[in-house]
Specification:
Blueprint: E1 2-5, E2 9-10, E3 20-24, E4 27-31, E5 44-48, E6 53-56, E7 79-81, E8 90-94, E9 98-105, E10 110-118, E11 123-127, E12 130-131, E13 141-144, E14 149-154, E15 167-172, E16 177-180, E17 192-197, E18 204-209, E19 218-223, H1 235-243, E20 246-248, E21 254-255, E22 258-263, E23 266-270, E24 273-276, E25 279-282, E26 286-290, E27 295-298, E28 312-316, E29 319-323, E30 326-327, E31 330-331, E32 335-339
Parallel strand pairs: 2-6, 12-16
Antiparallel strand pairs: 1-32, 3-4, 4-5, 5-6, 7-11, 8-9, 9-10, 10-11, 13-14, 14-15, 15-16, 17-18, 18-19, 20-27, 21-24, 22-23, 23-26, 24-25, 26-27, 28-29, 29-32, 30-31
Length: 340
């Protein structure tokens, strides 16, 4: 495994951690996050993989005209607004065009607000929340499980109180309605959730990993995928990768690791922080989960791989990219291509 820093053209994002990175039409969209001095950000940048260039996404509230109405006939409803300032949020891509920002830390409290960025029209909407609105969400996960619903898993609560067990909510992204669902999940924060087939199952289960000291994954529900995985690694490369890796036990408990689906049966998990005594230890451990056999592999270590927490990591095509996060005691603004 090798991390290669990318020198790109254009205006790049500033140093940050606990931001989001979304893949739309082969481009990376970096949004929000928090700085070293705890400033919560609301800026968005697009990295065009094909041209190796950054551009800042300017998104003022548009004014209506006959050529560009302020109400989209496509999706979704909601009030036009400026970009929200959030970190520790989620970003879910809908219909290959819209990025739905859910919850996070706004500098004052955990929130459950829902915002939508249209990557075509390049403006924001606030979708009014209703129903069983969570008290607050941060370091949660949000997974698209149907043509209209996102499943949210994570501890719910305000600044001083959180549930002992994780909250589970459906969010109807068309209407903004939250519905609490009776999935009993362990209390987690900074975990990963991926909709993948397990063993011989023809359906996909939500594989929830990390976010708690004691470790242990959970499988929740079963669904059919509504959108394809952005990354698609060649089978030969995957076979070679597994061949040079070591079979291992399930990784110990860790928080803020990142998971990338390499194909329908292989999950790549990297970084985060593990618990050791009273302090957290940031790691550069990397694992592959072979979901049809539930077998774990640990990738061989490499000297140039940074130890990261609060970073983002995504796959598009046969490439993996990582951006930002904490290196040592400082946040960074490096974009890497991760070669595995």
């Amino acid at each position: 495994m090798e991390f290669s820093a990318i020198l790109a053209q254009g205006t790049a994002p500033s140093k940050r951690a606990f931001h989001s990175c979304s893949v739309v039409e082969g481009s990376l969209y970096i949004f929000g996050g928090i700085t070293d001095d705890r400033t919560v950000l609301n800026d968005m940048y697009r990295y065009d993989v094909s041209s190796n260039s950054w551009s800042a996404m300017e998104s003022p509230v548009p004014r209506g005209s006959q050529s560009k109405p302020v109400v989209s006939s496509v999706f979704p409803k909601g009030r036009l607004c400026t970009a929200p300032s959030v970190s520790h949020h989620t970003a879910t891509v809908i219909r290959g065009r819209f990025i739905l920002i859910i919850g996070g830390w706004n500098g004052r409290k955990r929130c459950a607000d829902v915002f939508c960025f249209d990557t075509v029209e390049q403006f924001w909407r606030h979708i009014p929340e209703s129903g069983d609105v969570p008290v607050g969400l941060s370091s949660h996960t949000a997974t698209l499980v149907s043509s209209k619903d996102i499943l949210i898993i994570g501890r719910e609560g305000g600044v001083h109180t959180q549930r002992r067990f994780a909250g589970a909510f459906y969010l109807n992204f068309k209407t903004g309605k939250y519905t609490e669902v009776p999935y009993h999940a362990s209390s987690r924060s900074g975990h990963t959730s991926n909709l993948i087939p397990i063993r011989a199952s023809k359906e996909n289960h939500l594989f929830v990993f990390g976010g708690r000291k004691s470790g242990g994954y959970e499988l929740i529900g079963s669904w059919n995928k509504t959108e394809e995985t952005e990354s698609s690694f060649p089978k030969q490369r995957l076979a070679e990768l597994i061949k040079k890796s070591t079979v291992c036990e399930e990784p110990c408990g860790r928080q803020h690791a990142k998971a990338v689906e390499l194909d329908s049966k292989h999950l790549f998990i990297f970084g985060g922080e593990t618990w050791s005594g009273v302090r957290e230890n940031v790691t550069n451990d990397a694992f592959i989960l072979e979901s049809d056999r539930m077998r774990w592999y640990k990738l061989p270590p490499s000297g140039n791989v940074p130890k990261l927490v609060g970073h983002s990591m995504v796959g598009t095509g046969d490439k993996i990219f990582a951006f930002g996060g904490g290196v040592g005691n400082k946040h960074c603004d490096t974009l890497w291509e991760v070669k595995i």
